[in-house]
UniProtKB/TrEMBL annotation:
It catalyses: L-proline + NAD(+) = (S)-1-pyrroline-5-carboxylate + NADH + 2 H(+); L-proline + NADP(+) = (S)-1-pyrroline-5-carboxylate + NADPH + 2 H(+). InterPro entries: 6-PGluconate_DH-like_C_sf, NAD(P)-bd_dom_sf, P5C_Rdtase_cat_N, P5CR_dimer, Pyrroline-COOH_reductase. It comes from the Bacteria. GO terms for cellular component: cytoplasm. GO terms for biological process: L-proline biosynthetic process. The keyword Cytoplasm applies. It comes from Brachybacterium avium. Pfam families: F420_oxidored, P5CR_dimer. Residues 25-119 form the Pyrroline-5-carboxylate reductase catalytic N-terminal domain. It is found in: Cytoplasm. Catalyzes the reduction of 1-pyrroline-5-carboxylate (PCA) to L-proline. This is Pyrroline-5-carboxylate reductase.
Length: 288
């Protein structure tokens, strides 16, 4: 697969040819900071709560995670994996291969395994699981927890078309799910995976300056967050290039033009590019 292919869809539109997610059984092993939002996304897409089973490191942890997203806490990993169609592994990268080794005899042969671990390649995952087993790498970002995120999907060599369609259906409520290559994942990290953190930092800086200028903090929070949301929504819905949209609000000699000139003088554009490049470079280092 040479191109990045976006597969966005209206989750409320009728899709008679799609998989029946109510009949799909999902096991989530490690429903933490990222596994939890992924579980919630799949429930929102149509997986039944009694068919989404969570197994964490302890019974109490499994119960808390299941209650938080509205799923079912499994008594054990073995119980979670029984008859699973999809197995989501949400553990840390340094744990992933050891976990697969531990679970590979328990994972149903026809299940598709989804790894959320950064830096561990499809080849490593497939070699550790077993030859001919279906494996997908998924790189979600944190805004999937509110249905406004992005997920990069990397398809393993044994994933069938039906399984590929199923994975996209499971992430239909995440925001946007795109097919990417393993080489593209590094750019994806900069453009989506880590970008939410950069966006939070920018919003924080703008809010602090609004407070310094005299606005109450609650008002500053509301104005900055809503305006950033509105700007992104305008671009998404209109398809207008950001440069064109920017020019439309930069009146000659006006306040926005003056503020934008200050951004350029302070090197904000270069700083943002450097942050994205640093994230992508670090992703490559973690994979090597």
């Amino acid at each position: 697969m040479d191109d990045t292919t976006a597969q966005t869809q209206d989750p409320d539109a009728a899709q008679p040819s799609g998989p029946d997610l109510a009949a799909v059984t999902v096991a989530v092993i490690g429903a933490g900071n990222m596994g939890g939002p992924v579980a919630a996304t799949m429930l929102d897409a149509g997986v039944r709560p009694d068919r989404l089973r969570i197994a964490n490191t302890s019974a109490d942890s499994s119960r808390r995670a299941a209650e938080q997203v509205g799923a079912t806490a499994a008594d054990s990993r073995q119980d979670a994996l029984a008859d699973a169609d999809v197995v989501v592994l949400g553990v840390k990268p340094y744990q992933i291969l050891d976990l697969i080794t531990e679970l590979r005899d328990l994972i149903p042969a026809d299940a598709v395994m989804i790894s959320l671990a950064a830096g561990t390649t499809l080849a490593q995952l497939e070699d550790t699981l077993a030859a001919g087993r279906a494996v997908v790498r998924a790189m979600p970002n944190t805004p999937i927890s509110v249905g406004e995120g992005a997920v990069g999907l990397m398809r393993g060599s044994s994933v069938t078309d039906a399984q590929h369609q199923l994975i996209h259906a499971l992430f239909a409520r995440a925001g946007v799910a795109v097919d990417i290559t393993e080489e593209q994942v590094h750019a994806f990290i900069g453009a989506a995976g880590s970008l939410a953190g950069f966006a939070f930092a920018i919003i924080e800086a703008m809010t602090e300056e609004a407070v310094r200028q005299g606005l109450r903090r609650d008002l500053a929070d509301s104005l900055v967050q809503q305006t950033m949301r509105g700007a992104a929504t305008m671009l998404l819905e209109s398809g207008v290039h950001p440069a064109v949209a920017k020019a439309g609000v930069c009146s000659p000699g006006g306040t926005t033009a003056e503020g934008y000139a200050a951004l350029e003088r302070e090197g904000v554009r270069a700083g943002l590019a450097a942050a994205m490049d640093a994230a992508a470079r670090r992703s490559r280092e973690l994979t090597s």
